[in-house]
């Protein structure tokens, strides 16, 4: 471990700063007393909100973006309010240090953090830059032997990205606020990700299913070896024409390609053919055997790690990155933000050695496997995500040290890394074609294939998952590891169970987090390290919600994407967005000047399309109503309103009165996916909407009108409370000011009307006044118990229940709301409470066993709403998702994400803000001042 930097007079200590406090203890243990290790707690400075700028800057060039776009795009930075105390602490410790080591992460963000630390701390001691690809003793020792200067190109790339995102968001988001709804946002990557999800839903909405039929049968050799061993085969051709399958149809439901060479069977033709083959003589027409070779997948990048963790562990992207971050900080894996598949020489040696020890020398090829990234934006200087160290610890060796989620992710990374250096899987694939002539003279040929793995190779350690492919899945796809019986050409076969099978094509599958990450990576949009944050953002903005594992766009997302496509087309164009990412990469490589690049992006340049500013300045009039309207049928239009989506049928001319009737509107249920809003469903909702506001009659007690309404959360009944009359207003007591003058009359407090949701057996069209009065009679008081506690019966969000103070008990049926008696309620309350804690409420849903923790999962009704629990971890059901929508897979994901967050930090008393002032820094107009650069490695100054 180096000591040279600590030999000058002073405390004898060097200050080493990392990003995360989680690394401090581990690194300090490796370095010893010669170093004081501190963390910056991430970024210490950032661009402020324009409203947070000092008063003298708000009206100047920094006022709009906190960036001076007229003078080289100079940013104005401020120390984050929650980091001022940390900066003061670092300054104090730097005064006593003999050297400063900046050991933030080696990516652009880490390089930028190191630069900001230099700018703020202004060290007067030698400064060294070093990075740790992993938190191990070996890696730290190597890092001290590879000290370097700050990489100014990486700093420029990060700063350019930050300014770019500020310009993009601050120019386009206000347009969304004015034309769609407040609180929305546009972003360089989030808007493109939203467009991908919306485009997929559009494809599903336009999809026309097609029906097709084929035959399947069971066959066996009549004599010889393997006689009687049955195998299944499927019809592949009829009269020399290939039988049409799912992949032969377009999204319009029409056959594509060489239609004259395809046999499209309908139900009648398929059943007739099956009947004609009942007694047919089948023979083997051909048998082909080919060698089978399968190579291992490359080690993990950030993107492929997120994809595979979603497939195999059912982790969200956020959970994967949270768990991986902890594994990295505690020395179990290498840095998890990377787009390289390369392994260091030490890692290759460790993987090959471990594969040899665990599986044998035959499972390791003669020479190491070398991988290179397909992504054009890959940074090969980084290393793939792998187990840390020059020798790997097996999952069993670390199992006792890790949480369940951390163990499963470490095991996945370990398996993938070791498998990447193992031998190919070997085997053979046999394809047999067999046929017969039907009683009607039609030639039918069936086929079957089977793969036999003779040497598992890397499959002994790991097999990569795959995403859903409807065409492959429906048509059978690859049969996998399946052995066919021994056969020879000309062999006779017995046929049984030759049956006609009907199929229907499926629309393109919705994106999952894994498949969305995959396509973003393939398109070169954004950085894999930001995908988790992007997906979280589009969910938080209400653009996308999750059903199971599928991502479903909201109608608001449709409006946002339409506006962007029509008025900011380049900024949601996939190629344009990928080119922006490539531009940032060129800046990071020192191949392009950041100021020139931002100038072209924002102001435009000769020979290029207009920049963002000219487009915003020349937007013209945007028809908000058109942007927020989507035709469903010729007369029904979906509109995105301030309070959510609704259907509307325009008013018509009344032939009798000649007046225009009011339009008919109907709410769209929140849980209805866009592709489920079919014309028939829209008409059904409109019929419900026609009954909205229907007067049912008058309450005989109060005389008030009772109406049935269609609300955002379902149908309900309510009473109409008339506005106070002039006489009632005049009769109010007069209040006076101290000077004796009368105060203006106050508007009387409006009485809250009685309201109640319809029962499950009622509809808006059919509910009667009698039904409504029964609903409005709730809550119903049954009486009191022996202690005088009042007992009521009520209808809640999750069904009928009894209530006594804070003690609630569920009822079995809605009918009991009106029939349960006090005696029956007392008997229910006489039952013992579970675990001695208030009411033992039954679970709202039983979700089975969590495959990650192997604990039972249920949804319960808590004080603040429904929540999911496995007995140890609790997580609230996300806003926008209902109890009915939560699947076991989704529950497992949410619980895993909550566990990954770790325990909530303890609350500490707020320090006084008195006497503190915001300090801001304009970035120096020079390229980067020499004084801001760290000293060269090995120099004391």
What's a concise summary of this model?
By secondary structure, the protein is of the alpha+beta class. It is built from 27 helices and 34 strands.
Oligomer: single chain
Q: What's the tally of helices?
A: 27
**Which ranges are low-confidence, i.e. pLDDT below 50, for 5 or more consecutive residues?**
1-10, 473-480, 834-839, 908-919, 925-941
Q: Which term fits the overall shape?
A: globular
- Report on the biggest sheet: 6 strands, antiparallel, barrel
Question: What's the helix and strand layout?
Answer:
Layout: E1 14-18, H1 21-31, E2 35-39, E3 45-46, H2 55-58, E4 67-68, E5 74-79, H3 84-95, E6 100-102, H4 108-121, E7 127-129, H5 137-144, H6 152-179, H7 190-206, E8 211-221, E9 230-238, E10 241-243, E11 262-263, H8 267-276, E12 282-294, H9 302-313, H10 317-329, H11 345-359, H12 395-398, H13 404-419, E13 425-437, E14 443-455, H14 470-474, E15 492-504, H15 513-523, H16 531-540, E16 544-547, E17 550-553, H17 555-567, H18 574-588, H19 594-603, H20 612-617, H21 624-627, E18 629-631, E19 636-641, E20 644-649, E21 664-667, H22 679-690, E22 694-698, E23 705-711, E24 714-720, H23 726-730, E25 755-757, H24 769-776, E26 780-784, E27 790-796, E28 799-804, E29 807-810, H25 816-819, H26 822-830, E30 845-849, E31 856-862, E32 865-869, E33 874-876, H27 888-901, E34 920-922
Helix pairs in contact: 4-6, 6-18, 6-19, 7-16, 7-17, 9-15, 10-13, 10-16, 10-27
């Amino acid at each position: 471990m180096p000591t040279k930097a600590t030999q000058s007079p002073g405390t004898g200590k060097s200050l080493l700063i990392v990003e995360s406090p989680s690394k401090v203890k581990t690194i300090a243990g490796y370095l010893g007393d010669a170093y004081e290790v501190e963390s910056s707690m991430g970024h210490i400075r950032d661009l402020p909100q324009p409203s947070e700028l000092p008063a003298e800057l708000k009206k100047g060039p920094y006022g709009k973006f906190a960036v001076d776009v007229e003078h080289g795009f100079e940013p104005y930075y401020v120390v984050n309010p929650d980091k001022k105390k940390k900066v003061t602490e670092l300054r104090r410790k730097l005064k006593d240090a003999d050297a400063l080591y900046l050991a933030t992460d080696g990516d652009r963000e880490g390089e930028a953090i190191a630069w900001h630390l230099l700018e703020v701390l202004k060290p007067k001691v030698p400064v060294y830059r070093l990075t740790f690809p992993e938190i191990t003793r070996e890696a730290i020792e190597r890092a001290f032997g590879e000290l370097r200067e700050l990489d100014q190109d990486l700093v420029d790339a990060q700063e350019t990205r930050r300014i770019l995102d500020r310009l993009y968001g601050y120019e386009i988001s206000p347009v969304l606020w004015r034309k769609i709804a407040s609180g929305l946002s546009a972003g360089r990557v989030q808007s493109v990700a939203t467009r991908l999800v919306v485009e997929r839903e559009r494809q599903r909405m336009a999809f026309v299913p097609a029906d097709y039929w084929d035959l399947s049968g069971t066959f066996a050799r009549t004599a010889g070896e393997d006689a009687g061993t049955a195998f299944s085969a499927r019809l592949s051709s009829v009269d020399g024409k290939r039988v049409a399958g799912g992949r032969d149809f377009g999204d319009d439901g029409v056959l594509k390609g060489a239609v004259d060479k395809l046999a499209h069977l309908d139900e009648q033709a398929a059943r007739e053919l099956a009947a004609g083959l009942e007694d047919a003589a089948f023979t083997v027409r051909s048998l082909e055997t080919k060698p089978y070779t399968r190579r291992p997948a490359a080690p993990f990048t950030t993107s492929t790690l997120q994809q595979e963790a979603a497939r195999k562990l059912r982790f969200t992207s956020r959970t994967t990155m949270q768990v991986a971050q902890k594994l990295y900080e505690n020395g179990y894996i290498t840095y998890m933000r990377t787009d390289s598949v390369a392994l260091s020489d030490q890692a290759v040696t460790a993987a090959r050695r471990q594969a040899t020890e665990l599986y044998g020398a035959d499972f390791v090829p003669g020479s190491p496997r070398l991988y290179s990234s397909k992504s054009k934006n890959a940074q090969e200087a980084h290393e793939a995500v792998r187990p840390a160290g020059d020798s790997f610890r097996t999952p069993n060796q670390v199992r006792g040290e890790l949480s369940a989620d951390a163990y499963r992710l470490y095991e996945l990374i370990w398996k993938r890394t070791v498998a990447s250096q193992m031998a190919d899987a070997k085997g053979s694939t046999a394809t047999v074609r067999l046929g017969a002539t039907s009683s009607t003279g039609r030639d039918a040929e069936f086929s079957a294939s089977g793969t036999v793995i003779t040497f598992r190779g890397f499959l002994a350690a790991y097999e990569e998952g795959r995403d859903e492919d409807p065409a492959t899945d429906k048509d059978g796809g690859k049969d996998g590891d399946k052995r066919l019986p021994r056969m020879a050409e000309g062999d006779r076969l017995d046929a049984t169970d030759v049956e006609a099978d009907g199929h229907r094509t499926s629309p393109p599958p919705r994106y999952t987090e894994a498949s969305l990450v995959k396509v973003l990576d393939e398109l070169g949009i954004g950085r894999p390290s930001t995908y988790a944050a992007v997906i979280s953002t589009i969910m938080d903005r209400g653009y996308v919600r999750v059903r199971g594992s599928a991502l479903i766009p909201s109608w608001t997302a449709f409006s946002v994407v339409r506006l962007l496509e029509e008025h900011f087309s380049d900024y949601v164009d996939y190629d344009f967005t990928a080119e922006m990412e490539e531009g940032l990469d060129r800046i990071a490589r020192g191949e392009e000047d950041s100021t020139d690049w931002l100038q072209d992006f924002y102001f435009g340049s000769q020979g290029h399309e207009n920049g963002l500013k000219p487009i915003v300045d020349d937007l013209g009039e945007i028809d908000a109503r058109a942007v927020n309207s989507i035709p469903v049928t010729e007369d029904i239009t979906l509109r995105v309103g301030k309070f959510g989506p609704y259907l509307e049928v325009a008013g018509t001319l009344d032939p009798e009165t000649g007046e225009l009737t009011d339009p008919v509107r109907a709410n769209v249920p929140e849980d209805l996916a866009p592709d489920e809003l079919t014309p028939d469903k829209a008409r059904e909702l409109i019929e419900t909407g026609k009954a909205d506001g229907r007067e049912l009659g008058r309450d005989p007690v109060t005389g008030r009108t009772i109406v049935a309404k269609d609300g955002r959360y379902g149908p309900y009944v309510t009473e109409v409370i008339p506005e106070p009359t002039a006489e009632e207003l005049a009769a109010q007591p007069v209040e006076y000011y101290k000077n004796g003058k009368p105060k203006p009359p106050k508007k009387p407090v409006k009485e809250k009307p009685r309201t109640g949701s319809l029962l499950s057996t009622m509809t808006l069209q059919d509910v009667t006044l009698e039904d409504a009065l029964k609903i409005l009679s709730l809550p119903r008081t049954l009486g009191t118990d022996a202690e005088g506690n009042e007992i009521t019966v009520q209808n809640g969000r999750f069904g009928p229940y009894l209530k006594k103070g804070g003690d609630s008990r569920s009822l079995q049926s809605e009918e009991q709301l009106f029939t349960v008696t006090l005696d029956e309620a007392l008997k229910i309350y006489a039952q013992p409470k579970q675990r001695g804690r208030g009411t033992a409420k039954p679970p709202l849903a039983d979700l089975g066993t969590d495959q990650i923790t192997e604990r039972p999962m249920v949804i319960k009704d808590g004080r603040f709403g429904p929540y999911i629990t496995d007995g140890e971890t609790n997580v609230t059901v996300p806003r926008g998702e209902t109890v009915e929508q939560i699947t076991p897979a989704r529950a497992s994901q949410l619980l895993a994400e909550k566990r990954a967050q770790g325990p909530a930090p303890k609350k500490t008393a707020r320090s006084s803000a008195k006497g503190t002032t915001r300090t801001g820094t304009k970035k120096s107009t020079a390229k980067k001042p020499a004084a801001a650069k760290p000293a060269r490695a090995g120099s004391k100054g």
